Amino acid sequence: MLNENQINQVITLLKEENQITDAMVLEEMIDHFCCSIEKKMILGISFEQAISETSKEISPDETQTIETHIEKVNFRIRLKRKVKSISAVAATLVLLMVIGADAQIKPDIPPVKGEFNITSKYGTKRDISDQKMKLHKGIDIRAKIGTPIYATANGKVNEVNFSNKGYGNKIVISHDEIYETLYAHLSSITVKANDLVKKGDLIGYSGNTGLSTGPHLHYEVLKNGTCVNPEIFIETSDE
Amino acid sequence: MYNCPMYSKELLKGTLKTIVLKLLSEQGKMYGYEITQHVKSATAGKVLLTEGALYPTLHKLEAEGFLRTEKITFGGRIRKYYHLTDSGKSAAITKINEFEEFIDTMKFIFNSKLSIESK
Ligand SMILES: [Zn+2]
Q1: Domain span at residue A202?
Q2: Chain A touched by B77 (CB under 8 Å)
Q3: Which of A49, A56, A238, B70 shows a CA-CA span of 20 to 30 A to A9?
Q4: Is beta strand B29-31 parallel, antiparallel or unpaired with respect to A155-161?
């Protein structure tokens, strides 16, 4: 039986030499090639020789034929399903609505309008004051005091807190069971706890309150209670 | 479509679906590589089933509702087994009967032709 490393060599061969792109075809060809290699190895030849013989027997032309034919078959099935079934159309509409709703509760827009600069990224960095490694739980966006800040997804204001320590004046919004966003060092806040907000609603203005080394917005995204890189969401929305 | 050391492509064309249906009705479930090896050994290498012919046929039969598939994780890779569906089972019977009848008819034609010639 081939080991993981050998299977990976087969996968590389199929992707690079045979140029298989279809995941389903790839999966099936992996097993086929592995079987062929194993059979040859039982007869006493090395893995290297067995993979090279198999690769000669089943040429890239052969696997291309397979992929093309199977794609054609699948295309026809999809087309048939589309034409035949009205309920499929209904299902698609429901799906689009679900996806649409999902898009509203995912924090995938930036909290400021227009171009913005990230002055400190998400992740670990050395704290200047005590020289310890600390996790930067969010991103810092350059913003002069009074820059409008917007909710990055639909949700409910979970917390509004005025302070001159730590995060300074901050807002926490819950978007659904999964996501929360946090906006810190604000100069003023225009929402209150339990307010319902929509994606893109004004919630406050940036500032320099709390433990801040200069005017900026500190922005966090929490997924299931754990902070994640907010940039991932903003970037994917560009697609 | 076929690489056949003994029989011509033309002769075998159109029998592939029947071969696959027949094999699956005998064996219950089979995966792609197993089918190619089975055909090879059962016909003593006279029919060599290429991958480029087999896999599209399997997927076509699946699309027609004659086959269903089952995936099994097997030593770090996934093996896809093909089974006959109920309509696949009846299609197998029809196709096999049709083919056997066809062979009988061919025999009849060729035997009678031979007997005419021998006179
Ligand atoms: Zn920060």
Answers
A1: 118-232
A2: yes
A3: B70
A4: unpaired
